[in-house]
Amino acid sequence: MADVNNFQSFPHFSQLPKEVRLMIWEMALPCPRIVSVEMRSLRKTYLEWEREKEVSNKTAENTSDSETMPEASRATSLDCERPGVDPPPIDGHLPGIKSNTPPPQILLACHESFAVATKFYERVFSIHPSSPETYFNFYQDTLYIRHDTFSWYSEGAESIIDGLVCFSVHNDKELNRVKNLAVLLDPKSIVSVEEWLVGLLCFFRGVERLSLVVQHYHQDDFASPLCLIEPIDVDAAWLNLQLFLSDPYKQEEIPEIPSNDNMGLADVDLEVLRVAIEAEMGQDYVAPKIECGVIVTRDFKEYLDSLLERCLFDSG
Question: What is the pTM of this model?
């Protein structure tokens, strides 16, 4: 019998025809991911940026053709300002975008794999004058935005909308290309879900599937990829399953998995909500499919699934 360890490497891969290697690299592309993005502060401050622009503008005044002036030199700090909202202090830092989701490992394997992967994964999402850092596949990845991390001017229900106003200044086309969107809702929100979603979808007119996240479980655990599961009460489900497995006198039926109504969406007809949004956005707009769920890590999902399988086995 062949040793399994002998199949962990394939030293003759480079000797394969290039066409075959490219096909293998394409087949090795990762599965759909949930890509979380959030606001961050850049090292550069507004004051430093203003000083740089003053120097650039003085240089541009000495040129006869103003069209040769770089676009960045003509920009102002108001590019990131939401109308009606005071901008951050002049000595504050510029806003930027970062992602806690690591880039696909295939991008780091070699030049050949990088060339294949970058046909599908683009480095996108930034706020001027920062550079984009997030690798995203518009065909299959899900963009994930959280109300508690994607904000700059405010907190609560309007934080995501405020952040998107700043974000969309230089990302309008990219946002409209997003097909799958997940949003962590604010349980303290006082606006209607329909009204809030209309404001949100104005930035994402190309979304085909919208996931309303009612809970982000293990918020600071980014060691494992994120997954979207049914909208259950994770803590209560975990406790019920553990109690069932530890009880020597088990009941015949497995314990109940309670639902999570953190946002009060249990009584909301999502299809009616979708039709209402479609009517509000205009006749030519096709509203996305709307679903609710909870975000957990893949490791925790596998652990929860294993508990459920053990309960099913023990219940006979």
Answer: 0.79
